[in-house]
Design brief:
Length: about 600
């Protein structure tokens, strides 16, 4: 067929091509809108819908529905100016939607590795280390006198507390430095050859895996690779040792934990379940030798959590912005790339800690089994032993396992084991959406998927989170165990997660992310529960009679207060002129 002539094309355009106002297109668009609304109601190809998603939407109050419409309009307006693949802290503080998501009551932080949180707040951690008397730096195998040496990540560099600095006059950056000598950290910072303390902080952050760019955005990498990895990985171990030398010295750990709790609560989080990866060396104040067990570590965690709880409940909340503080618990995470004996010893230490600190130890995890290449199947002997010992000691330590990731789907088989082992939540599980039967099993067993979004890593709209929600799989957002949030600050990381989800998927909206936040409360391990009562309380949700129901009711109050604030703050500008669906409700609700 010959190409259209200009005359033929003009004739089609003016006489044959329907315009948007033609009845035939209007009828089609009406049908399309009805179909989309029906899809949003169902949100699943089965009759068993995700009660934490569809039911949440159906139960929205008039004021919450009005807030959702307002946020939709704000988001649509911002789509012309902001994308989810070009995020920097400066850019994210400007949009109205960012300010709104900062105020969102986010419920609980269910998956956050303590070392990853330290890296997210690495500037604050370095400041604490420089302010703490006795902190020293050493290089065990050579001096750092040249630019090549300072950038060589194979050179073992450590930060530790030392009582006496006999050779404090030495400079680690000079050629006459004696290997293994500890020099005061402040001296090392002041003497850094490329910019003094400012340059030293940049160098130390780079050794911990953070690269600062001139535009103030933060990119996280390992020293030699762009591959995402966790702190327990072999390549990241050197960075972890340096970071942990600062973090797990008691005076620094106390101050950092206080800072973290304030930051998390200011970001709208009421509850945290922090993962500590063992084995770790914890040093008491003034001690150069690590503790032989975790007892003193849990003493400090318990003291600081209780102290902050008292402070949070007695300090007036004049602005009405702060959510209630419910506390924190610890999930004991074991590094699986150890020999069998070491893993058993660590698991036994977990049980011992649980027997003393029952209120603090919430569960057990294996750190990054997918990335480290050792499957849960390989770990079955140790895991079955662990469960038997828990039964003998009459302690409840449930599994909260990571599965379904890894390179080339190598961790997908872990999904089967995680479910059979009775995990109560699944970390990330990026391959789960490819397994229909597994998704059905996850729904049947009331297992939550802890999903971590990584802004800036490709097209976030292709993330499997929305596919899981559409299939009725309960999900919540988390920071995960990886280093993508280095330098962001813990609070910024979670606001980033929710804000990214809001902008990545139009169908999610404020109601969708509200459901994700509610799920983090519904699946939180507030107290020890055997499997039967755990499932019962998840099913009952806020109509139950236990602690979980109480927390869900408290969160619902915060959610309504948040929605009222949106309508009050933005209703005049965004409550009218939208799609005409319920604008009058906005005005009535605001009044």
């Amino acid at each position: 067929m010959a190409p259209l002539t200009d005359e033929d094309y003009h004739s089609i355009l003016t006489t044959e091509l329907p315009s948007p106002s033609d009845p035939i297109l209007q009828k089609y668009l009406s049908s399309r809108t009805a179909l989309i609304k029906e899809e949003y109601k169902q949100r699943s190809v089965t009759e068993r819908q995700n009660k934490a998603d569809s039911s949440f939407r159906q139960a929205l109050s008039p004021i919450a529905k009005a807030a959702c419409r307002i946020v939709d309009r704000i988001r649509d307006e911002e789509h012309h100016h902001v994308t989810t693949t070009t995020l920097t802290p400066d850019a994210m503080t400007k949009p109205k939607s960012w300010q709104i998501i900062q105020r969102l009551p986010k419920g609980g932080l269910l998956r956050a590795q303590m070392d990853a949180l330290a890296l997210a707040n690495v500037d604050h951690l370095i400041t604490l280390a420089l302010e703490t008397p006795g902190m020293c730096l050493s290089s065990s195998n050579a001096n750092l006198a040249t630019a090549e040496a300072t950038g060589d990540t194979t050179r073992r560099v450590e930060i530790r507390f030392r009582k006496n600095n006999q050779k404090s006059e030495q400079s680690i950056w000079s050629s006459d430095y004696e290997s293994g000598t500890f020099v005061p950290l402040t001296n090392a910072a002041d003497d850094y050859p490329e910019g003094g303390r400012s340059g030293f902080s940049k160098w130390l952050k780079a050794r911990c895996g953070v690269v600062s760019r001139s535009d103030d955005s933060i990119t996280t990498t390992t020293p030699q690779t762009e591959k995402t990895e966790s702190f327990s990985s072999a390549e990241g171990r050197a960075d972890s040792r340096l970071l942990r030398g600062m973090l797990y010295y008691e005076p620094i750990f106390r101050k950092f934990l206080r800072h973290l709790l304030v930051q998390l609560m200011e970001d709208g989080l009421s509850w945290s379940e922090l993962r500590l990866t063992f084995p770790l060396d914890y040093y008491r104040t003034g001690s150069e030798s690590p503790e032989s067990d975790s007892d003193q570590l849990f003493v400090v965690i318990g003291q600081e959590a209780a102290s902050y709880c008292r402070q949070a409940t007695t300090t007036p909340d004049d602005l009405g912005q702060r959510p209630p503080f419910w506390g924190l618990r610890i999930i004991w995470s074991t590094t699986p790339n150890q020999d069998q004996r070491s893993i058993i010893e660590d698991a036994d230490s977990c049980i011992a800690a649980k027997m003393i600190w029952s209120d603090l130890v919430a569960g057990y995890d294996l750190a990054d089994t997918d990335a480290l290449g050792r499957s849960l199947t390989d770990m079955l002997p140790e895991l079955f032993w662990f469960r038997k010992q828990c039964a003998l000691e009459e302690v409840e330590i449930p599994f909260f396992l990571d599965a379904g990731g890894g390179i080339d789907g190598a961790g997908e088989c872990n999904l089967f084991d995680a479910l059979l082992l009775g995990t109560r939540r699944l970390g990330n599980a990026p391959s789960l959406y490819r397994h229909p039967r597994m998704m059905e099993a996850v729904k049947d067993k009331r297992i939550l998927v802890e999903s971590c979004l990584v802004p800036g890593k490709g097209d976030i709209s292709n993330h499997p989170l929305l596919a899981l929600i559409a299939q009725g799989v309960p999900c919540a957002l988390s920071l995960g165990d990886a280093k993508e949030h280095a330098g962001e600050g813990a609070g910024l990381g979670m606001t980033n997660q929710f804000w990214t989800a809001l902008h990545a998927w139009e169908s999610l909206g404020l109601a969708g992310i509200g459901s994700l936040a509610e799920n983090s409360v519904r699946w939180a391990a507030f107290e020890d529960q055997p499997p039967e009562s755990w499932i019962r309380d998840i099913r009952a949700a806020s109509v139950g009679s236990g602690l979980k129901a109480k927390r869900l009711k408290e969160w619902a109050v915060e959610w309504e207060r948040f929605c009222l604030w949106i309508v009050t703050e933005y209703g005049d500008d965004y409550g009218e002129g939208g799609d005409g669906d319920g604008d009058g409700d906005v005005t009535a609700s605001a009044n």
